[in-house]
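call fold(seq) -> tokens
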Amino acid sequence: QVQLVESGGGLVQPGGSLRLSCAASGFTFSSARAKWYRQADGKERELVAEITPAGERLSYPDSVKGRFTISRDNAKNTVYLQMNSLKPEDTAVYFCAAAFLLRTYWGQGTQVTVSS
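ret:
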């Protein structure tokens, strides 16, 4: 059974940091391209970070460039999203996704709220 389970979300003050984790199981994670998306209330889902199976980080959107970093540990079947200098506009539900053998698997999402 394929599973992606996110953790690490929560409430943080502007300027703070959070690290999201996504643990994968049920498929060959080391061969999957991994991604983080976010969806704010009333907005479309947005891709914020992507990493290849070998660990190459693909381009980030301008909204998070220089603040967010994606990484992965294939030995732990886990992908991470380090988020620094958080802003209120980063508030959203964050989802991880894994693309493997022409299919995309999704986690259930974790809420990140940036507020003072």
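The beta strands are 3-7, 10-12, 18-25, 33-39, 46-51, 68-73, 78-83, 92-100, 103-106, 110-114.
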